[in-house]
């Protein structure tokens, strides 16, 4: 504690000295590419059905400087995460923001890559080991000019610095598979964001889940990095131990969205003491402040000598006292000074080029898809079982007149009901998209690289799922003999699976709640299936909506018609059910029974299906980009 006091006194003197010489000296000392973040009279409100409009943040003013760590503290629900989100430009659409947030004295969007945000919930690819997760991230974030060996070394050094060397080859874990502890996951998330040394770093509860020693080492490392690299760090912290508290430069103490204190962390003790709330000896100052301003429990504050105050009274007193204090004046003076900075536009740092991003993301996504049983492996097993069932139900269908209907039903089942099962991979898509969103917001790579990586990495799995189960059904049933017919059948099945996956990716990007996504995805496909021309023949479909435009938009039409042409063209079926038996040729069946459009070949249907795959993937990219623009400041 003695050292703590000495440290505090030293910092206090520094604060006062800095304060007076701020205008002339500090600006000269500014690392030319550092980020000064200021906010003035910042209000955030949210509209709720129950309470109408509610203020979450009430007129906050403050600043964060390069080389320093600003800690946002306060009881649970006081608005720490909301302040971080507002400063990072990530408030959700239900909230409204008022006030001025400036970067280097300018109102500007943070270029992707200049800032990073470690959110409260760790979003990591759970199938990777710590080494893989950090190394892939290093490959994506660090420029191509750095060699692979150096990137590997940087990744491993960062892992050691975060105290994760013992778990370096442990799988991160999640989705029911045990792996790292929550504190270790926290450190992996921080480690990944520190790789590129962002100029501005937001950390939401960086020490949650960590024991006291780990909290100290992690925060110490963060403080050292901010000093060495001129990084501006803003961290919300719940309950720092005293050693961690001593590391912090500035403190923003909030209660119910109001500022209780903003200034050097070591001067907070004096502020509380002056107001009659002296921190008892041997007590962690952070614990003391939080106990004074926690309104969640109905307990009065004991001021000694039998005097008591309600927490609400303490908060009101501290808020008033801060507003009229010299520290508040100093904060406002600094904010005003920093407003005059007129620094440059934030610039995007160097990172891997788009080709490297595509390659790395393809490899990472391939490994994830291979290891995540729910993605494709389970589906392959189920498809084999289903195709065996189909093969036995329609076994050796033959070429009787009755086989016409059996073949038609089987092809419809393959093109629609078999492919709809791709929605089983939806939870994995949602997890992938969560990681993508988080990494993308932190500027790790381009959205197009993610779409390319995801498409290429899924292709071999989908080809395997189409070929093996498809072959089982094809040969057990005895469909149209010939390699071209068989290959066409597999290609249509593959295209349909790609389409369903793309559709589900679009749904996942709009609707991240996976239960709602599953229902919506299945619903859309059910409707498209109905209009495909099997359940109701094309000429019998109601013209409005079902025929125009849905029949032409739904991929089922092209899949059914392509498969029917592939199956029936060139075959003849004896009609042994009518007197004076005759044979009926495939073309007649297509035209008269299935009402297939015969003006173009089956290859056109296949080309349309692959064209749709490209269109759906581009649509997915567009929805992702639109979603991104909504959160930019
Ligand atoms: N979109 C929203 N709609 C309704 N209320 C909201 C919304 N966002 C935040 N709030 C409310 O605003 C208050 C502050 O929330 P915030 O998450 O910023 O608190 P916090 O200090 O970070 O809490 P914790 O330490 O528990 O994470 C809470 O009461 C929360 O319920």
Helix and strand arrangement:
Elements: H1 2-29, E1 37-48, E2 52-64, E3 69-73, H2 80-88, E4 95-103, E5 115-118, H3 130-141, H4 148-161, H5 182-194, E6 200-204, H6 212-229, E7 232-236, H7 242-247, E8 250-255, E9 258-264, H8 268-274, H9 285-292, E10 301-304, E11 307-309, H10 311-323, H11 326-339, H12 354-371, H13 373-393, H14 403-420, H15 426-441, H16 447-477, H17 483-510, H18 514-530, E12 544-545, E13 548-549, H19 550-553, H20 555-568, E14 572-575, E15 582-585, H21 586-593, H22 602-631
The structure holds adenosine-5'-triphosphate (ATP).
Subcellular location: Membrane
Main location: membrane
GO molecular function, one term: ATP hydrolysis activity
In short:
One of its GO terms (cellular component) is membrane. Residues 37-281 form the ABC transporter domain. The chain has 633 residues and is α/β, with parallel strands linked by helices.
What do these coordinates show?
The protein is an alpha/beta fold and 633 residues long. It has 2 domains: 2-114 and 198-339, 3-Layer(aba) Sandwich (Rossmann fold), CATH 3.40.50; 354-631, no CATH class. The protein contains 22 helices and 15 strands. The protein has helices spanning 2-29, 80-88, 130-141, 148-161, 182-194, 212-229, 242-247, 268-274, 285-292, 311-323, 326-339, 354-371, 373-393, 403-420, 426-441, 447-477, 483-510, 514-530, 550-553, 555-568, 586-593, 602-631, and strands spanning 37-48, 52-64, 69-73, 95-103, 115-118, 200-204, 232-236, 250-255, 258-264, 301-304, 307-309, 544-545, 548-549, 572-575, 582-585. The strands form 5 sheets. A 6-stranded mixed beta sheet has the order 5-6-7-3-8-9, sandwiched between helices. It has a 3-stranded antiparallel beta sheet with strand order 2-1-4, sandwiched between helices. It has a two-stranded antiparallel ribbon with strand order 10-11. Bound molecules: adenosine-5'-triphosphate. Adenosine-5'-triphosphate binds at residues 46, 48, 56, 74, 76-82, 92, 94-95. Keywords: ATP-binding, Membrane, Nucleotide-binding, Transmembrane, Transmembrane helix, Transport.
